[in-house]
Design brief:
CATH topology: TATA-Binding Protein
Distance between the termini: 23 Å
Number of strands: 5
Order of helices and strands: EHEHEHEEHH
CATH class: Alpha Beta
Structural class: alpha+beta
Radius of gyration: 16 Å
Strand order of the largest sheet: 1-5-4-3-2
């Protein structure tokens, strides 16, 4: 499994960002923070990366579940979503919660609960990306 799930879109970056906001709300997630890394790099003298918006997103209910399993799971929060400029429009993607949770050192029932939660969040994030990319 890849560390990221990404979907190309014919939408401009601005249109994709609007679609992401709508998809997040529809799935009860929220963007907590956003930056355009491409613009930041250009400001610092490293141009040429194009628009590259990094969003930190969260579902409060899912975050609560994760933290109840183990407070150290806060290191996996929030989830990361990327909207970047491509030659054909944009690409929308997420960093895989299943891959990240695979780094946890939970054992026994906690590990099972953690794996199940990561899988459920992964499915939700794929739906958000798919909805926004259409």
């Amino acid at each position: 499994m890849s560390f990221a799930y990404r979907v190309p879109s014919a939408k401009s970056v601005a249109e994709a960002l609007e679609a992401v906001e709508s998809a997040l709300a529809a799935h009860r997630f929220k963007a907590l923070w956003q930056t355009d890394m491409g613009a930041t790099l250009a400001e610092k003298g490293f141009p040429g990366h194009g628009a590259m918006h990094v969003l930190e997103i969260c579902s409060p209910a899912r975050a609560d579940e994760l933290l109840r399993i183990n407070p150290d799971n806060a290191y996996f929060l929030p989830c990361r979503l990327l909207v970047r400029e491509t030659a054909g429009g944009s690409e929308i993607g997420i960093l895989s919660p299943e891959q990240l949770i695979g780094l946890a050192e939970e054992e026994g029932q906690g590990a099972d609960r953690l794996a199940k939660l990561a899988s459920e969040v992964e499915v939700e994030l794929h739906a958000i990306v798919d909805d926004a990319a259409r």
